[in-house]
Design brief:
Blueprint: H1 2-23, H2 29-51, H3 61-84, H4 87-93, H5 99-107, H6 114-131, H7 141-161, H8 168-195, H9 211-234, H10 237-244, H11 247-259, H12 265-283
Helix pairs in contact: 1-3, 1-9, 1-10, 1-11, 2-8, 2-9, 3-7, 3-8, 4-6, 4-11, 5-7, 5-10, 6-10, 6-12, 8-9, 9-10
């Protein structure tokens, strides 16, 4: 169960990151974050109302609220980095986020077995190598800094959302609270940006044609948070976090398929190592 849901998290996050990176090349990053998260919050509100999730309110929702405050900062930094630099470098670097939940799991007493420890090492090394060398493509220091800030934020969200609920209906409510906080923080940042002369919309106006893509990014992101929370509940956080961190491989492959970003041999080898590490974790 842990492997299945954690790998589903990787797939969903990888596709959401690819879509978000593309959208921020056409529209302001804050607008992408606010619109995509608003759609996700609206859908979750309907689900919570339909499942009676309001009855699950409790102190654990503070974890979801905290994740909602940190998440937009991480997403804004990450989408800006994706818009500035090659996805094949930015996305794998963001997997340093795995250090936060793995560290939390170790502090809580989790000790992976020998095979799982080997799987963690192989998978993390594979994801890093999947970034590969981008010959001829300069990567600005600001892009690296934005990615590292995003990685820290994503890692914090990993750790917080895993503690936000103890039931499925409670998880829907926790994700709804997280998204409402996301919209509030992103909306405030957008307001400040506009007050300072920044653009809220591209020159041609609201990108209505991109609305389905914006909705997909928001819903895929929230679904990934949900599948990760389930994975962390059914198994060790150290294993769930590493498997969930394989999303850069999905992003890199999507960039290869849709944008024709060339994969170097070291990147292909890294993807293979990530797959081997996944198999070790799943069978360990």
């Amino acid at each position: 169960m842990t492997a299945f849901f954690a790998l589903a998290t990787s797939l969903l996050w990888g596709l959401a990151d690819f879509g978000g990176g593309l959208l921020t090349r056409r529209a302001p990053v804050l607008t992408v974050v606010v619109v995509s998260q608003t759609v996700a919050a609206a859908v979750l509100g309907v689900i919570v109302a339909a499942t009676g999730g309001w009855g699950e309110a409790g102190p654990r929702l503070w974890f979801a609220f905290a994740a909602g405050l940190v998440g937009p900062v991480a997403m804004i930094c990450f989408y800006k980095a994706l818009a500035q630099g090659p996805m094949g470098v930015v996305s794998p670097l963001a997997t340093l986020s795995v250090a936060v939940p793995v560290g939390v799991g170790l502090c809580l007493g989790e000790r992976p077995g020998l095979i799982q420890a080997a799987g963690i090492a192989v998978a993390v090394a594979g994801v890093v190598l999947a970034g590969g060398p981008q010959r001829g493509v300069p990567v600005r220091r600001q892009t690296i800094l934005l990615t590292l800030v995003a990685a820290l934020g994503f890692g914090a969200v990993f750790a917080l959302i895993a503690e936000a609920s103890t039931s499925v209906t409670g998880l829907f409510l926790a994700l709804f609270v997280q998204r409402v906080a996301n919209v509030a923080v992103g909306g405030a940042a957008l307001y400040v940006s506009v007050r300072r002369g920044g653009a809220a919309l591209p020159p041609e106006g609201f990108p209505w044609a991109s609305l389905p893509a914006l909705a997909f990014v928001g819903l895929a992101d929230v679904a990934a948070n949900g599948t990760y929370a389930i994975a962390a509940r059914y198994g060790p956080v150290t294993v769930a976090a590493v498997l969930a961190s394989l999303y850069p491989v999905v992003t890199a492959l999507a960039a290869r398929g849709f944008l024709s970003e060339r994969l170097h041999r070291i990147q292909a080898a890294g993807a293979g190592m990530a797959l081997v590490g996944t198999l070790l974790l799943a069978t360990g």
